[in-house]
Amino acid sequence: MALGIPDEVMMNTALIKELADVAKDEALLQGVLMRIQETPNSSELVSYAPFTLFPTPVPKAVFFQALAVQTHYNTLVDKISQDTDFLQEALASTIEVDDFTARLFRIHQQILKEGRSQSIVLGLNRSDYMLDQRGDGSSSLKQIEINTFAASFGGLSSRTPDVHRHILKVAGRLEESQRILDNKPAAGLARAVAKAWELYGSERAIVMFLVEESQRNIFDQRYIESELWKRNIPTKRKRFDDVCKTGSLDQDKRLFVDGQEVAVVYFRNGYMPQNYISEQTWDARLLMERSQAVKCPDISTHLAGTKKVQQVLARPGVLEKFFPDQPQVVEQIRATFAGLYTLDMGPEGDKTVEMALAAPDRFVLKPQREGGGNNIYGSEICQVLQGVKGTTERMAYILMDKIHPAPVQNYLLRRDAPLQISNCLSELGAFGAYVRQGQDMVMNECVGHLLRTKSSEHSDGGVAAGVAVLDNPLLF
To answer: Annotated catalytic, 147?
Structure first.
């Protein structure tokens, strides 16, 4: 490990076994918890959320670069969400072939036609990066995606630094334990929600967490709820079904669910087609969007986080349109872009297809989907593109350069998994939180970070998808 854990620790089987036992207990003590797969809606049986035995070395420069650019990404997402023409143009080809994006876009159009009923905007997002290994051994920060909807692990990642500090101390690595930074995303995310609730201006109104049917990752969200309760802000967890059955708007478009006024809808569900199980579910989404409640995210911010928008932003001159007099900001954002290529119909898209078929291992094919586990790699790219290359169906994807991070050895701790050393790849996320009222940006901050690590044989997927595990950066 580069300036990380020395081999005499990594290869000492007896010590590793002892440390793994200590680590699991410490994770439970610190509240790094998940419900178990067998009973995802009960807290009777819980286990530790999967995590790495050791923190992963991350160069200081790229780590702080990710944190520093986050407020600019917040501003960019917010500006895109307000630019109707840009969203229309950017998503035109996707809407033609992707039903899910098309349905979201129709809600967006309906809201524009009626006029937005709420001038307060709350954005909680997470921009994810990998460190691309350059020829000279240095690494550069490259963005994988920005999550503008239900960006998770702000809660659990607030609790993992103490776990890794403790493991390192027990391993006799005091100096390394002091290189793990504090990280408090849950408090920062809650601060933004609290600000939006306060601006809404009704002490009786609640913050409604719109949650999934299956709630294994409930503790991650409970940390944010707990921060809100500390401020005497009432929260309730509701499902789409509750909104379908008991949701209504009064004459001022205030949202009521189960008889309670809702100040903020914090969506932790609704980013995948399978979340909308019926027409009633779509009606419930529209009801919430039409309401006076502050939505996190609102429909236009949801659309701003699509893969297609990410690809369009990488075109020459596009960032300048959003930051006309700020060349340094443009440069900071653009430095994090990986190569992104269109698959729209026409010569440019044809060129992308040829390029991908000639060297599939250089690229990742991405559909317009969130939630991990959707991307296409290697020879599978050829299969998919051969099938769709002559049709408009290819417009549902974008192509991106594959990022090559340097693998690092670590132990991944998972319930019922054998304790073995793995070659691992990591993904670094920066949490952003902003609140705007009308034209006035009331809050715009980077509120913390997230490091997730997976075994290098897995191409795709996050912690909730069961592939990646929680980690901490060990800065060097």
So the answer is: yes
> Is 17 noted as a catalytic residue in this protein?
no
CA 192 to chain centre: 17
Active site residue 370: yes
Active site residue 389: no
Token couple for 225: 């709820």
What gap in Å lies between CA 276 and CA 213, rounded to an integer? 11
Active site residue 60: no
Residue 152 annotated as catalytic: yes
CB of 192 closer than 8 Å to CB of 433: yes
Closest alpha carbon to 147 in 73, 49, 69, 64: 73
Which tens digit of pLDDT belongs to each residue from 69-110? 999 999 999 999 999 999 999 999 999 999 999 999 999 999
DSSP 120: E
Q: Which of 147, 158, 183, 472 is catalytic?
A: 147
Q: Is 284 left (phi over 0), alpha (psi -120 to 50) or beta?
A: alpha
Confidence (pTM): 0.96
Kindly report, residue by residue over 418-467, the tens digit of the pLDDT: 999 999 999 999 999 999 999 999 999 999 999 999 998 876 666 666 68
Mark whether 114 is an active-site residue. no
Alpha helices by DSSP H, 31-83: 60-82
Tokens at 70, concatenated: 């986050």
Q: Is 113 a catalytic residue?
A: no
47, 93, 125, 152: the active-site residue? 152
